[in-house]
Amino acid sequence: MTVRGAVSAALASAGILLAGWQAGAQVAEVQAPVAAMSVGATGGAAAGDGTSGTGSTDSGSSESSTAAGGTYTGASVQTRFGSVQVQITVKAGAITDVKALHLTDDDRKSVQISNRAAPLLRSEALAAQSANVQTISGATVTSDAYLTSLQAAIDAAHL
Amino acid sequence: MNSQLMPAPPAHSRSGGPEVRTYPAIPAGPHNFASQHRRRRLRSDALTVTAWSSVAASLALWLADGGARGIDSAASAFTAMGIVAGLAGMDLVLLMLLLAARIPLIDRTIGHDRALEFHGKLGKPSLYLLLAHGLLIAVGYGMAEGLDPVSESVALWVQVPDMWLAFISMALFLAVVITSLVAVRRRFPYEFWYGVHLLTYAAVATSIPHQFSVGAVFAEGTWQRWYWMAICVATGTALLFFRVLQPVLATYRHRLTVSRIQTVAPGVVNIEMSGRQLDRLTGTGGRFFVWRFLAPGLWWHPHPFSLSAEPLAHGLQGEGGLRITVRNLGRGSAQLARLRPGTKVAVEGPYGLFGTAARTRDKVVMIGAGIGITPLRALLESTPFSPGNATVLLRGHSEQELYLSVEILEICRNRGARLFHLTGPRVDGDPHTWLPEEAVRRGHTLAAYAPDISESDVYVCGPAGWARNVVADARTAGVRAEQIHHERFDW
Question: What is the ipTM of this complex?
C-alpha cells in the first residue's frame, strides 16, 4: 500500500463516517416525534404527553381511583427493543380502555411492529377483560411486554 | 544479436529435437511501461480507498440511523457494539468474496497471488468480528431483559424469526476458518479443504436473512436497506459471473481438446491442445490458466498452469494449438501424463500478473528454476523488449532439468536476449543462496549476470524457498519491490 493510497483511504473513510454521523443527528431529531406518534395513535382519545414522559411507575400503581373505577398504570417492562407500559381505564369493574403509554420504539422496525400489534392487543384484551390473550405472531417481544404491563395494571386495579 | 550462453551449451532435447515455431510478432512501437505502472498504481490506490471506504460506510449506515445517539445504558452500549461488529464483519466477508472472485480489475492491478493473500489476511479479523457480534448482542439484549447471555441466545434462537439460520451461519464460519488455518490445511487433503471452503457460500447465505429481518438498521423503507442489498447482490453477481459464467463461456468458445502428450524429461510432459479462437488467449505471457481435463476421475480437479508456448492461431476461426508443460508434482499431475488425445478441456483465465501487464521498465530479467522455467518461456516469447534489454537465467540441478532450454535458446537468439544456464548442486548448508555452488565459489552474484538489474523488471518463478532467496538478492542489488514479479508455483 502506498502512502498516497493510505492517506486517501483514511480521508475517504473519515469523510464517510462524518457524513454518517451528521445524517444520524438529523434522524435522532426526527425520530422523537415518530415515537410519540406511535403512542398517540394507539392510545385512544387522550394523548397524555406528560404521562408517557414521566415513566416514573415501575410497579403497578393507581393514579386516581374511585370506588369501582379510574385509570391504572401498569409496570414499565424493558425489552431489547425498548420499554412497554400500558394504562387501563376501569369503569364499574370493567376495563373500558387500554392505552399504551410507551411501546417498543428503539428503531423503525420496532415502531412498525408496535403500531401493528398494539391495536390488536388492545381489542383482544378488551374482549377478554384480562391479560390472558394470545401474543401477536411476529411481535412476540412486544406482546409479552404489553401483556405483562397490562397484568400489572389489572392487579393494581384489584379486578 | 546479443545472445551469449554460459557456462555450457544446452543439452540436446529429450523430446527428439526442438520444434521450430514461428514466433508471434511483438507489437512494434515504443512501450511506455512507466506510465503503465503509474496507471496500475493508481488503480491499486483506488482499490485500497474503495475497500476502506466500504468498511467506513458499513459503520456510517449505523451512525446515520441514529445509532450512536441511542446509547443510554450499558445494555444499549453492548448491543450497539454488537451491531457495529456485525456490520463491519459482514463487510469484510464481502470483501473476501470479491478478492476471491477473480475479478479482472483486481487481478490486473494486484495479481491473483496478492488478492488471495489479502483474502487470507481478512479471514481471522472477520471471524473475530462476527463472533464478537454474536456475543455482544446476546449480552446487550440479555441485560435489557434481565437474562443471562445463554438464555438470551436460546430465546433469540426460538423466538425471533431467521435467527436460527444466523446461528447455523456462525457455526459454518467457524468451521471454514478453522479448516483454513495452515496447520489444519496441511493435515487434510486439498480437496477436503476446498470442499469446506465452499461452505463459505452457505455461511454467507444463511447469515443474510437475519440481517434484513432482525437488523433494525436495514428496516423496510430505509436507504440503508437498499445499499446493503446492492453490495450483497453485486458481490454475488461478481462471483457467479467471473467464477462460473465466464469459465463456461470460455470453455465453450475455445473448444479445447488434448491433441498430443509428449515427454520432455523424466516426469515432465508437454500437453498440447487444439481449439478455436486461440488469438483471444495470446499475449498473456506467463499468466496462468486453470485447466480441467474432462476425463473420468480428473474433471473436478483444477490445475493451475501457465502456457509454455503462446497459442499459434491460424485459420478463420482462430484454430490452432497451445501447450502447457507439467511436471509430475502430485497425484493429480501424475494422472495428466496418461491423458488421452481427444480429451476435452475446460479453461479459465488468464489470471495473475506474471505477464507484460506488470512491466514497469524497458529492461527485463527473467529467472526461473525447474518447472518454473516454463512460464518464462511464454513470457520471453511475448513481452516486448529491444535486443540487448533482456537477460534470462535458468537454474536446475542438471542440464536435463532446464526444461525447454532448447526452445528458450532459440527465442533468445531470435530476440536478442542474454541467456545463462546455472546448473549444479547448491551450496551445502547455506539456506540463503539460490546459485549453484560453483558460481558462488567464483564470487558470481545476481548483478554479475545482469549488471543493469536495478533498472529492470525481474520475473522470478520457481520453488518458494529458492524464489525467496532470489528476491532477497535482487533487493540487495537495488531492485525495488515494484520491479519484482514473483509467481508462486508450488500450489
Answer: 0.78
